[in-house]
Amino acid sequence: MSELTLFGTFVCPMPFTLRKKMFHFLSENPVVAKIQYGLKITFIFVAVLFVDALQRMVRIAQEGAAAKSKQDMADVRTETNYAARRFYAQRNLYLTGATLFLSLLLARVFYIILDFIHVQESYTALQAKVAKQSGASGENEELRNRIKELETQLKTGQSQDRDFETLKKQASQQNAEYNRLADEHNKATGNVSNKKAD
């Protein structure tokens, strides 16, 4: 009954954090490890009892077959005694067999759920790592976009500087041309200025 209760506890639905705490406690606690060691020794004795119950049941079945073949006058007490011995042998066989089967089943389910918990933890850690990397890659993408913006602004600023330099050159050339034309006009009209052209 305790094995059935424990099995029901293992497989019943419960929150993942509670299940994780329970299984980590059961797998890592030294007191539980000592109890498990004692249970393993107990199950060895149960296995010996199972073999003994199996041998008794086979022996009783052979005795029953031999009694049926003799066709002697059957005594009610003998038949009742035979039926009781067969019942006890079958009961012991079923009890010890079920106990051994449940112990194997319980151990296997325990380790399967423990593996599931470890896989779930590693999956959660991997998801967090991927989320962190995607956050970092998103930050990297944002920085790349900012660099492209600054580069375009720098190119625009350089082109504005080039435009300004071109405009200054054009203005100085136009100023020089204006002064030359003004000097020619003044010579042609006879109005000579005392100022020197820049």
UniProtKB/TrEMBL annotation:
Residues covered by the BAP29/BAP31 transmembrane domain: 2-125
Keyword Transmembrane helix among record annotations: yes
Residue ranges of the region described as Disordered: 154-198
Signal peptide feature range: none
Domain (Bap31/Bap29 cytoplasmic coiled-coil) ranges: 146-196
GO BP term, example: endoplasmic reticulum to Golgi vesicle-mediated transport
Comp. bias intervals (Polar residues): 188-198
Membrane topology (UniProt): Multi-pass membrane protein
Domain of life: Eukaryota
GO cellular component entries: endoplasmic reticulum membrane
Family: Belongs to the BCAP29/BCAP31 family.
Lineage of source species: Eukaryota, Fungi, Dikarya, Basidiomycota, Agaricomycotina
Pfam families: Bap31, Bap31_Bap29_C
Main location: endoplasmic reticulum
Keywords: Coiled coil, Endoplasmic reticulum, ER-Golgi transport, Membrane, Protein transport, Transmembrane, Transmembrane helix, Transport
Location of this chain's protein in the cell: Endoplasmic reticulum membrane
Alphabetical list of InterPro entries matching this protein: BAP29/BAP31, BAP29/BAP31_N, Bap31/Bap29_C
Membrane-crossing residue ranges in chain numbering: 35-54, 93-114
Biological role stated in the UniProt entry: May play a role in anterograde transport of membrane proteins from the endoplasmic reticulum to the Golgi.
Protein name, entry field: Endoplasmic reticulum transmembrane protein
